[in-house]
Amino acid sequence: MQFREIIRQALYSLGANRLRSALTVMGVAVGVFSIIGVMTALEAVNKSVETGLTSLGANTFQIQKYPATVFGSGHRRNQYINRQDITYPQALVFRKTMEGKASTIGFMLSSQANQAKYADRTTNPDVVLTGGDENFSASNGYPIEKGRNLTTNDIRYATNAAVIGSELAATLFTQGENPLNHSIRVGGEVYRVSGIFAKKGAAFGQSQDNFLLIPITRYLNHVKESGSINITVEASSRKTYSRTLDHAVGSMRITRGLTIREPNDFEIRTNESLIDSFRDIERAISTGAFIISFMALLTAGVGIMNIMLVSVTERTKEIGIRKSIGAPQNSILRQFLLEALILSLAGGLIGAAAGTATGNLVALQFNLPPIFPLLWITISMAVCSAIGIGFGLFPAWKAANLNPVEALKGK
Predict the structure, then answer these.
(1) What was the pLDDT predicted at 71?
(2) What is the torsional sign of CA 360, 362, 366, 372?
(3) Which of 52, 66, 280, 291 is deepest in the core (most CB within 10 A)?
(4) Is 369 exposed, middle or buried (0-12, 13-18, 19+ CB in 10 A)?
(5) Which of 294, 244, 241, 249 is CA-nearest to residue 268?
(6) Do 170 and 28 sit in the same domain of this protein?
(7) Structural domain harbouring 139
(8) Are residues 224 and 261 in the same domain?
(9) Which of 269, 286, 307 is the last residue of a domain?
(10) What is the structure's pLDDT at 284?
(11) Are residues 152 and 252 in the same domain?
C-alpha cells in the first residue's frame, strides 16, 4: 500500500470517531500549551528585564530598605517590614562619609497612584510622584531634554520646582505648547514645571516617563513626612565599582549604628542581584510548567494508547479482511502508528499555537514585539512525535499481529 493511501486511511479512520479523536487531541494540546505558553511569557519577561536593567547603569547600585523581591514565609517578610527606615538625615550622613569615594550619590522617595491636573486636563491616577535631589537625573539615567534640573537651592529651600517625564508632559500639554514655567497640581499641591526629562521608555511593563520629580525636602514637608529613602550610588568607573560598593556598605553600616556582629539591615540592589532574583523566579515557574506538562502529556499518551486499543478492537474484522487479501503486517503497523502520530501532532500544533498566543499577550503587556519560540515549538513537536509513536506502538503491533482467521470471526 502506498504511503499516501495509508495517510488517507488513517485520516478516514480518525474522522469516523471525531469526538473521541478531538478529546484525545485536546489532552496533548493542554500539555504543550502549558510549556509553550510559560516559555513564551518567560522569554518576554526576560527581554523586559534586560531592558529594565538599563535603569541602573553598569557602574550603579542602590541602597534600600527592601530587597528587589521577597520570597518566603510571613516571618521573613516581617523581618524587612520591621527594619528601620533609611531616613533623610541618615542619607545625608551617608553622602558625607562617601565623599571622594563615588562619582554621584542621589536620593529618591516615591508614591504611586497620583493624579496630575493642568487647566482642564487631568491624568489617570497612575502618576508617580518622586522626591529627589539634584543628583537624581545623573544617578538614575534621566537626561534633561528641556529646561533645567533641580538645583541645590531647590533642595535647600524646598521650592515647588518640578521636572516632569515626557509622557506626563504629553498628557497634560497639547502639541506645540511649552510646559516650562506652567503650574500643575498634584494631590492638592501646586508645582511649577522647571524642566522635562528625555523619553526613557518602559521597563518591566511600566512606563518610566509618567512621573514628576520634586525636591525631596518639599516631598517630606508637604507630601509624606516619613518613608525609606532609596540611595543611588554611581562609581567613577567599572574598575572602582567593587571598591565603591564595599565603601558604601561600610558607610551605611556606620550610619545605621550597626555593630560588627549585627547583619546588614538594608539591601544592596545591583544588576546582578536583579538578574539572580529573576532567575530564581524563572526556575520556579519553569519547574512547575515542566511538571504540569509532563503529567498532562503522560496522561495524553495513555489516552492515545487507549483509543488505539479500542480502535483495534472495533476494527478487528476490517484488519482480518485486509490481511486475508494480502495486506502485509508492516502496512497495518504503519497505519495504526500513523493514526497515533496524527493525534499527537495535531494536539501539539494546537497547544503550540495557543501557548504562543497566550505568551505574546504577556509580551504585549511589556510593550515588546511578538515572540515566536521556535526552539520550544520544535522540542514540543519532537516530544509529541515520540509520545505518538511510543504509546501507539503496542496497539499498532497488536493490530499487525492479529490472526486473520480469528480476526474475520470478530475475536
Answers:
(1) 53
(2) negative
(3) 52
(4) exposed
(5) 249
(6) no
(7) 57-269
(8) yes
(9) 269
(10) 79
(11) yes
